[in-house]
Each structure stands twice: as structure tokens, then as C-alpha cells.
# Entry
Amino acid sequence: MAVRYLKKAEKTAATGEQDVRATVQAILDDIEAGGEDTARDYAARFDKWDGEIVVSPETRQAAADKVSQQLKNDIRFAYDQVRRFAEAQKDALRDTEIELRPGLVAGHRNIPMAAAGCYVPGGRYSHVASAIMSVTTAKVAGVDQVIACSPPRPGDGVNPAILYTLDLCGADTILAMGGVQGVAAMAFGLFGSAPADILVGPGNQFVAEAKRILYGRVGIDMFAGPSEVMVIADDTADPEIVAWDLVGQAEHGYNSPAWLIALDRGLAEEALELVPKFIAELPEVNRTNADAAWRDYGEVILVETRDEAVRVSDDYASEHLEVHCADLDWWLQTLRNYGSLFLGEETTVAFGDKTSGPNHILPTKGAARYTGGLSVGKFMKTVTWQRMTREANRDIAQVTARISRLEGMEGHAKTADVRLEKWFPDERFDLTAVE
# Structure
């Protein structure tokens, strides 16, 4: 049976993307040329903020005093989960060395970056989870200096819960600054911090574009787009849970895709009926976002076999992938392209987004075909090294000289010749190119 769409999206993640590159490039150029004063001007213009930029210890403490004990407990619970998972990831990264031939030893080391910039959104929602995911992971990786920035609210500053979270997770510097100006401040090392070697964290289209422009000059976690969810469900799935999981991600924004791959028509049709009803139960802003997202980006795809489901899923390479099916081990071993995988109805994207442990900063727009999400490894460089005895030069230098001359690189060949002449003066070697 061919794959059938019971509901086909009218738009894709690329639909309606504004060309904001020129605007973002101009802001970055201005701030690089004008430094901190220019960054402050943009903060006053866009953030409506003229208070302290570098959050003081006193402000951090005042923010902590405003956070209820229950919320502190919840934040620490999530922090502990994320930290423990990050520590396990780090333990899996091993330095290594091998003797490739007698006298030639090579290896690699995993070295943390010196400075990381973590962007934490602070607009309509208080993104404490993003603060946990980015700063905690960088600190576990061993980054020397972690700089965080978050948009201040006019007259109030950075959200107290976000400030408390950033402080708990170990941010060395916190900047009350959002948008392109916040990204620029971290990248260029303004306000007393070191220039970031890598920029991570979610943000709006301007933040994403700033990171894209700066990529190469600094590292970034990924090119991020709107949040996505795909659910694969068979006749064992609970339609109500499936529908709510689709709605739960659609509320992210008007352009957040929610896709269902169904192996059972009854399940698919019931989900189609339930999703609009559940959207109607959301608060106003969330309801408006979810309604637009489901209308324009939602899809329900009917397949006959689980192999078809895997092919469709791997083609979409969704950010979040839930599997509500029998034989979960088969799906774990077979699925290939996803940002993060949620197996069984007992887990859900919201658990991963907030508290369960694996990182929620994940690839979107098909990028899961070639990258995973944020991890300890993103904050570390795997660099190689080698050491060689003089005796090992006998073979290595000869082959290097001949290959270099074959490629027309005489200077390279001479660096091998000179070593052979020094250490084996009484020997003669054939160092000419061989075709």
C-alpha cells in the first residue's frame, strides 16, 4: 500500500521565512565596531533596558529570594537529571592512543573549549529548561568560562527563575541582554567576558541568523528552526495521549510542525478528531499558536507496515520522535534520523524538554540526518597528536617523500628527505615519484 496523507500540510518549515540576514549583519557589524556602548544602545532599543548588563551577585541573590522553594526544588530536580546524563556522556568520551607501527604512536585528546556563550530565551515564557540544558552541559564538559545572556523585561530585568537557574547551573557571567546584541556580546567578548568559542541555545529568527552568520568565526550548536514533533502510532496506541502529544508541541508557535504516522486508520481518524478539540482547551495565546500550527503544518500519514513508517520518519528526520507501538526495541534499533527518540507512551517530548535528562536543544528542519542535539561533546574538541622514533622515520619518510613528489609538492618531500639524510646518512633511498 502506498503512503497516504489523511491530512497534508499546506506549509513547510521553510515557508514564509523572512530574509533577516541584512538586518542581523548590520547589527553585528555595528556592535563589533562600536563595542559595549553600541551593544547598550541596541539593548535600550530592542530590550527596552538601560539597567545593569552584567548581572551582579546581589541581583542574583535578589532573584533567588523571589523564587519559591517549590520552584527551586523543581529546578534542582531537573538540573540533577541533566547533569547526571551529561556526566555519563562525558565518561563515554575517552582519550586514546595506538602504536600504528613500531616507533609511531598516535592518539587523540578531548579538550574542553575555553569559553561558551549560552543564549536563554526570556520572552513570552520563562525558559528555565533551556538554561539548564545549555549551561549545565557546558560546565560538565569542563568549559572554563560559561557566559549566558537572556532578554531582560522592561523595568524588571531578567526573569528571576531564569537568573536563579543560571546561577545554580554555574554560569560565570550573566548578561541582561537579548537578541542579536546578546549574541554579539558573547561572540565578541564584551562586558569583561572572554570571546565565546561556541554559541548555543534556542532563540527567535534573529538569534538563529546571528549564530548562522557568526558560524566559522565561532562554533554553534546547530542551525535551529521551529520546534517539531513526529509521532508513530499503531493500533496499541492511546489516541488521547497521541493527540495531546501533538498539541503539546504545536503550542510552541504558529509554525511548529506536528506530524502523525499511523499504522492504523481508526487511530488516525480519532486523532484527527481529537486534536482540534484539545487545542480549543488551551489558554488564548497557546490556542492561537497551536491552531495555526496544526492547520498549516500538521500532517496525518497512513502507512501499512512499520518499514514504511521508518522510511517516512527517516525522510522527515524530525526533531522529536515519539513511538507509540508494540516491540519498542525493534524501533530503537531500526530508526535512524531523529533529534531525540521517545519510546512508549510512558515518556513524552515534554519530559525531555523539561526534566528527564537528555538534552532538549535538538536539530530541526531535517538536520537530524547529519547531526544530533547538544551534548557534552559539542563543548569539546577531539584533537589528534603523534610521536615518532627516528627508526620509524625510515619507512614513513620514504613513502611521504614519494607521495609528495607525485602530488607536485616538493617542499613537503624535502621535509622527509632532510630527516632521512640526518638520521641515516650512510643509506640510499629511492625518493622519486612513482606513477
Observations:
- The CA atoms of residues 24 and 210 lie 6 Å apart.
- The chain has three domains: 21-92+107-221, 226-372, 389-423.
- Residues 21-92+107-221 form a domain with the Rossmann fold fold (CATH 3.40.50.1980).
